[in-house]
Predict the structure.
Amino acid sequence: MELEESYELFTRLRQQMLVQLKAMDTPHSFAECIEHALSGSIKFSDCHVVQQLLEAHKPKRCLEIGSFLGFSTRWLLECGTSWNMHVTAVDPNVRHRVFDNPRWMVEGMNAPFIPDRLEIISGFFGAHGVWMDDYTRYLPHRPEEWVKALFADRVELDGSWDRTFDCIYIDADHSYASVTDGFRHALRLLEPGGMMLFHDALSWKGVNQALREFKVEFDGTARVEILDGTDVFAHPKLQSEAIKSGDGIGLFKLRKQSNAMVELAAELESSSEQEPDAHGGYRNQSPKKDDRRPPATRPVRV
Ligand SMILES: C[S@@+](CC[C@H](N)C(=O)[O-])C[C@H]1O[C@@H](n2cnc3c(N)ncnc32)[C@H](O)[C@@H]1O
């Protein structure tokens, strides 16, 4: 897809998201919903990078960790249409920003692809805490016990899942602890030659730091880079959109070396520091709040 064509698609999908938001049952104003929906979803220059990477590698099975309202889910599906890529979208469907039931939006945004090309799972991938912030900041407020019960109701997935993927797109909790934990688990599901993509690789210091460390650790085994859609910034017609966007996409691409993968898997087994609870998950591990702050200046690329 050419750049302008892909921008048209992006604009169409944004309009669809607004129509969907308008029909949503919510105590919040339409303006507030729009603001949260747009700022919490992937922007165009990052979409463009994701599209280029997908078109170059044509993965068959993509795992998305962190779908929110399903905008990036839809983008992944649209990009992979010509080779019929399947997407498994994992998100806990708990309150994020002002949205109590983001899954309703994911289903609406992606209706044409369900069930043939999209599977939606209301669950957590990797370690997670119970986050109260959005339940105290936005109406209706909810007591802690109520929120804990909701979180406990969700599926918990990790590296022991008996599935493999040749693409894993990660846009969940951006703390350093969560990114590294999610990465270790996701690595066990990634096929040789497969790629992992990390959203917010430039704008969130936890993601950026983790990627810099992966680059050193996996030198020779994986290609690790941060990409920012430079050609979008340079395009004369897209400048105003590009100014608002560009959170950066981190790429981790495994080389096809089966021996290295076997060693890596063994290493991961022995270096796993966390003991899963009775549900096979990792409850009660709140990310450090400091990690959630975006850096004041753009971090150095890896
Ligand atoms: C930034 S939003 C995702 C935006 C979406 N990818 C887009 O661009 O349209 C982050 C989402 O990750 C979800 N999330 C947080 N921790 C998660 C975890 N451990 N597993 C799966 N999803 C998680 C949140 O509930 C939230 O909906």
In short: The first strand starts at residue 61 and ends at 65. The domain at 3-125+132-292 is CATH 3.40.50.150 (Rossmann fold).
